[in-house]
Amino acid sequence: MKDIIFNVFLLLTVIPCFWVALSSNIVHAAFSLLITLFGVAGLYVLLGADFIGVVQVIVYIGGILILIIFGVMMTQRGKLLPLSIQLPGKLFGAVLTGVILVALILTATKSLWPVASVLGEPQPTSAAIGDLLLGKYLIPFEVASVLLLVALVGAVLIVRRSVRGE
Amino acid sequence: MPYSLPSFLVVSSLLFCLGMFTVLTRRNAIGILMGVELVLNGAALNFVAFSRFLEPSQTTSLLSGQVFTLFIIAIAAAEVAVALAIILSLYSRMKTIDVEEFKQLHG
Known about the structure:
The structure holds 2 protein chains of 2 kinds. Chain A is mainly alpha-helical. Chain A has helices at about 1-20, 25-45, 50-75, 85-110, 125-135, 140-165. Chain A folds into 2 domains: about 1-75, Up-down Bundle (Four Helix Bundle (Hemerythrin (Met), subunit A)), CATH 1.20.120; about 125-165. Helices cover about 75% and strands about 0% of the residues of chain A. The termini of chain A are far apart. In chain A, about 25% of the residues are buried. The longest helix of chain B has about 30 residues, at about 65-95. Chain B starts with a helix and ends in a 13-residue tail after the last helix.
């Protein structure tokens, strides 16, 4: 049963991913990215990471993807530019990523990972993650919050300056 | 594929490589941004898969992997906001987001 659900989410993740990489329409690519991100959220839940799954849906699908679609809409006036580079470069990219993919898959399948012999039942994770965030990982947590603030202010500043035409 | 650590690693390798292919071959700046998102998702999925399947140890909690995924998501959010600001700024200046056109710095 778990295998079947895993394979469903696997296909839901990987197939739209090809569309993101190969589609000639940027809007189709954006919506395929939405399905991929949903598939990854499903994989997180399947791994017992309920909190991360919900955060994935809220931040990626509710935030990042909306931003990307806004970006698409605000930059699509006028002529449609070709979405991808021409064939020689594309072939080079395909060969390069293919080699890396083969190496990664061989590493993933041939290595002896120190896997737990008995998989425990998934436990609720929110409380434990909260403990870690405000305990062991307090400094990275605070740095991440400052980073988000800086990104917020920086993004507004960059766009304002270009709108005023300086 | 069975529900096991190598299967999840294969999925995240696929996400990573398709994202890298997207970054390498897109001319549209927003397309490149989508590729970066795929790469980050592949890395984050790796962290969560390891936190689920590895042998628990006494000294460190396996949930650390999930905490790092949270940091990855936060950094992705910051990165997208700044990158889109730069893209919109470039668009208002150059009237295009084709990265082949951005060659002022090309010596």
